[in-house]
Amino acid sequence: MNILEVEKLKTYFFTEAGVVKALDDISFSIPKGSTLGLVGESGSGKTVTAQSVLRIVPKPGKIVGGSIFFEGEDLLPKKEGEMRKFRGKKISLIFQDPTSSLNPLFTIGEQLGDIVVQHMKLKKSEAKEWVIKTLKLAKLPDPENAIHSYPHQFSGGMKQRICIARALLLSPKLLFADEPTTNLDVTIQAQIIALLKDLQRDLGMTLVMITHDMGIVADMCKWVVVLYAGNVMEIGPIDKIFEEPHPYTEALLKAIPRLDQTKELVFIPGNIPNLIDPPSGCKFHPRCQYAKEICKEKIPSLEDIGDGHFVSCHRWKELNNRG
Amino acid sequence: MADTSKNKESGFSMKRGVSQWAVTWRRFKKHKSGMFGLGMIIALLVIAALHNYIAPYPPRPLPGSFTPLYEGEAGMPPSLKHPFGTTVMGTDVFSEVIHASVYTVYVTFLATVITMLLTIVVGLTAGYLGRHVDEVLMRITEVFLVFPSTLLILVFARIYQLKVSEPFWYIGGISIPVGLTIIIFIVSIFSWAGNARIVRGEVLRLKETEYIQASKSLGASSRWIMLRHILPNVLPQVIVLATLTMASAVLVEAWVSFLGFGDPNTITWGRLLQESFNDLSTTWWAEIFPGLVLFLTVLAFNLVGDGLSDAINPRLRE
Questions:
Q1: Overall average pLDDT of the B127-133 stretch
Q2: Backbone angles phi, psi at B247, to 5 degrees
Q3: Does residue A175 have a pLDDT over 90?
Q4: φ and ψ at residue A102, rounded to 5 degrees
Q5: Rounded to an integer, what distance in angstroms lies between the CA atom of residue B173 and that of residue A62?
Q6: Is B104 among the domain residues?
Q7: Is A167 part of the contact surface with chain B (CB cutoff 8 Å)?
Q8: What are phi and psi of A205, to 5 degrees?
Q9: Residue A319 backbone dihedrals phi, psi, to 5 degrees
């Protein structure tokens, strides 16, 4: 069973310089109870995907087409008031920067308590208990006193634990974690990753890890969706993606630094394309080492190559000796 | 105050936090001129509250009349009996200044409340809702900014001065001067525009912050975000603007009265200045003392405004 099915989703930003096609016809689905990695470089549309699912795309962005089915219900035709019942309760989001995602004026208890009181109609004392319980779940030390403290009193890692607790307050079924470790130092990163893994397992949530770190993906995810310039490049189970990757995924994998590395680090030449005027054909072709004439001319379609593995590449079969 | 308690299991302890307001107050307390200004404002409030006990002489029975009350003591220079001297009409300047302080307080606070309400409503809705609402509200704001408000205040003041039929409203035993109240409304309507633009700018900045996004992602409504996240965050800015509005409200009412467009039924500081203006060469004390008190009051509000702005944004001080 899939908890989320995204079909032909298009989210455009109508800027003064032109229309930025941040998500251009993307489709993927997330099996219930699994951990999925949403991978790509900066600007590939990872965050916009999460924002689109929650329908909180900032202006001048707008969802212009497609459908998003959450447990079989299409979210896009829903009115704002109905949509609000999904946010936090069914689908939740953890932000990249824990510091700026907490309101500096209120204590942790006030901020988190507010959400509980608003949505769960609990009394203040019950809400406090609930907040403390959830903070414990996120392994924040000393939650009884922490609720009387302001965000600036916590370290980055502790703030991220608070943000994780906030996202879990209303027991969502689907949790997006938008690069939750990017702003933390390495030892804390490992702790947060371990915490998210435990929470996903213990609460039976579906977790979407938005990241550009293939190491985290290999560690956590069963399924991977690779985005590039607003297109899905590849979808598949983790082992297939590491075995027979799309040329873009292959380039991403090569760019991971290794301890036993003797040569210089490999990087992907060039930059992510301008999305107002993207390259013709396959959007990755200007940076692809395998690109041929056909890649410039024709947009490849997402092809099912078996075992739940989908690839959008003209040359994949040839490169992997499959026909 | 901060209290520390230890968590036995982890050995980790968390200090109870201090709110932004407490921090601001702590910084403000160290601001000497700000505290001095605050002291003067508190003194003004005390004087206004106790004016009948402090002033040695009662207020004029008929504010419009020029009947000398203290025959034989007209045009006297400052002395122990008349600390600020007496006017050519024979009124005690000190007593009149003390009695008029009530109106100063009334003008200051009512004008500021109205101005800041307009400021918050316009700034918040324009900034948060954006798009068409913002367009319309900002064009209206610009109209108010380019109007020659000085002249319009005088025109409206004159129109209402002629129209007022009853001098006072009596509400629960308190007499409220009708003309002065109308002037307060007129002044307020011409004072919010600049403030609203500042608040809007602040809201535009706050709107993009991640905690607003986070709040949205947790199902908060627009109203909730505006009142619970944006308003508290613009409040420090609003309070600074409010103190500066208080200073200008005192000043504007004074010059409207000084020019003779004020409420004929109330004796305000501006009115005292106007009455004695022609006798400046002889009874200069009747002009200097109300002027000095007015100056000190405006100064006090400005000092507090400066002090608050430094306390709220310590980085802006340099």
A1: 85
A2: -60, -45
A3: yes
A4: -115, 135
A5: 59
A6: yes
A7: yes
A8: -80, 165
A9: -70, -30
Answer yes or no: is pLDDT of B165 > 80.
Answer: no
User: What's the number of domains chain B is made of?
Assistant: 1
B143 occurs within a structural domain: yes
Residue B104: C-alpha distances to residues B34, B108, B152, B251, B266 (Å): 20, 6, 22, 10, 11
- What's the gap in Å between the CA of B16 and the closest CA on chain A? 5
Who's near A116: CB < 8 A, 6+ residues apart? A122, A127, A130, A131, A169, A170
Question: Rounded to whole angstroms, how far apart are CA atoms A105 and A96?
Answer: 20
Neighbours of A297 (CB within 10 A): 12
| ipTM associated with this complex | 0.81
Of all residues in chain B, the one with the smallest CA distance to A155 is: B14
b/e code B272-296 from CB counts within 10 Å (16+ = b): bbbbbeeeeeebebbbbbbbebbee
Q: In chain B, which residue's Cα lies nearest the Cα of A88?
A: B218
Residue range of the domain that includes B280? 24-60+70-317
Instruction: For residue A277, give how far its alpha carbon lies from the nearest alpha carbon of chain B (Å).
Output: 26
- pLDDT, average across residues B187-193: 88
Residue B227, both tokens: 């009142």
Report whether pLDDT(B148) > 90: no
**Contact call for residues A312 and A233 (beta carbons, < 8 A):** yes
Q: What is the pLDDT of residues B265-315, one digit of tens each?
A: 888 898 888 888 888 888 888 888 999 999 999 999 999 998 988 888 766
CB contact under 8 A, B14 and A87: no
**Separation in Å, CA B115 to CA A114, B147, B198:** 31, 17, 13
For residue B234, give the CATH number of its domain: 1.10.3720.10
Asked if B216 lies within 8 A of A87 by C-beta distance, the reply is yes
Return residues 37-96 of A near B (CB < 8 Å): 54, 56, 58-59, 84-89, 92-93, 95
Q: Cα–Cα distance between A322 and A314 in angstroms, integer?
A: 12
Handedness of CA A66, A69, A72, A73 (dihedral sign): negative
Q: Is residue B18 part of a domain?
A: no
**A84, A105, A142 member nearest B221 (Cβ):** A84
Query: Is residue B21 packed enough to be buried (19+ CB in 10 Å), middle (13-18) or exposed (0-12)?
Result: middle
pTM of the model: 0.79
The per-residue pLDDT for range B7-33, each reduced to its tens digit, is 444 456 666 777 878 888 888 888 899
Structure tokens at A299: 């947009």
Closest chain A residue to B130, measured at CA? A59
Q: Is residue B30 part of a domain?
A: yes
> Half-sphere exposure of residue B317, counting CA atoms within 13 Å on the CB side?
13
| pLDDT(B167) > 80 | no
The candidate with the shortest Cα–Cα distance to B250, out of B286, B297, B288, B291, is B297
Q: What is the pLDDT of residues B57-101, one digit of tens each?
A: 777 766 555 555 555 677 778 887 788 888 877 788 888 889 889
Chain A partners within 8 Å of B233 (Cβ)? 103, 105
The domains located in chain A, with CATH, are 2-90+172-319 (3.40.50.300)
Give the Cα separation of A178 and A167 in Å (integer): 12
